[in-house]
């Protein structure tokens, strides 16, 4: 097909935004459908594209772990999401955290300014008849479109709960009871001047002694939660994003080995490691708001304020957002999709993002990137790409189609889903280095194919 063929993308989250960008960069006209703000969801608050609702953290940016490697691959592939994240990052130790509002605004502005992208603000209730189409509607797919997809694929949906963590006003935190530090004393890099050490650390840490911890654990374990709606009853939680109260109910020490682990931290007031700790991460560049790290929750709002104010330093905390549950919806990809993210029954229909069964912002955007490239290749009459399994992008794509369909659960990127190293290695660090080096080489081999049709229509960087 000649340059200028159309791609339809349904869903303006991270995956849909990335897919639209990648297709436009390859000379395709793109119609991007997003129902917000005409139709809102329980979790979103704005009409901006790529709005982050669960956390402002895109997790580790270190190249020696799997999510850091995935971000490196996306940058090399000219990712819009990585461009926006790098431009709006806030201090967060070794993690890549962003100013939420600026991040979404940058994605929205760049897509709106692209002459090949048309943003249509309305709800899509049926699968568009034109092809190729990328479905990237994410965990909060509308009821009408969910029914249309279910009718198309002939599979029952699986549901689990994600939970949103509370945010507090920085000025309401008792600074006399908390300390500023990154775990293990890591020095962070200033977003304004990468490489400049920040010796004071990036997280506020609320230390608890044993009595304080047990008092908090008892209150949390017995706190009231929002009742599940009838159609959601009996659906499982995703283990990687459990509500904090669900963890607490598994035993008195579960939190101390999870989100409240004190390892790598020393309380300067005592010179010792706390019994447990709650970490607070800056929510925006100006650090006027802080997110309770790992405290996604389904507690009722009155219970959240009562229980979380038992945390030292948060006794008078002002909550600007309380935790809330939101649904996630994903298809049974091992039965339905090819590694190219094409629907086997209709290869000109692609799925992307959390809908495919990947978990996490970065993973969702990465699948949007792959879907956008492949939608453009279909427009131009080229065979879609299945990324090498040795790459982080390819490992995710292969996982979601190779998993056991009878027990398919969402997956974050991790080195365990990559093929093992070809040589015997000693220790975790050496294994990570080997896998990362092999992934970089594998991606380099596929970059020329990824560049097919690349015109700069999305005004993005060349592939590296």
Helices and strands in order, then pairings?
Blueprint: E1 6-10, H1 14-25, E2 29-33, E3 57-60, H2 66-76, H3 80-87, E4 89-90, E5 95-98, H4 100-113, E6 117-120, E7 133-135, H5 143-153, E8 158-163, E9 167-169, E10 179-180, E11 188-189, E12 197-198, E13 204-208, H6 210-221, H7 244-248, E14 276-282, E15 289-292, H8 301-308, E16 319-321, E17 325-330, H9 333-336, E18 342-343, E19 346-351, H10 361-379, H11 392-402, H12 427-450
Parallel strand pairs: 1-2, 1-7, 2-6, 7-19
Antiparallel strand pairs: 3-5, 4-5, 8-17, 9-15, 9-16, 10-13, 11-12, 13-14, 14-15, 18-19
Helix content: 25-40%
Average pLDDT across residues? Answer: 88
Alpha plus pi helix count: 12
Low-confidence stretches: 187-200
Q: Report the portion of residues in β strands.
A: 15-25%
End-to-end Cα distance: 27 Å
The CATH topology of the largest domain comes to FAD/NAD(P)-binding domain
Derived structural class:
alpha+beta
The largest sheet has its strands arranged as 6-2-1-7-19-18
The total of beta strands comes to 19
What's the CATH architecture name of the largest domain? Answer: 3-Layer(bba) Sandwich
Q: Characterize the overall form.
A: globular
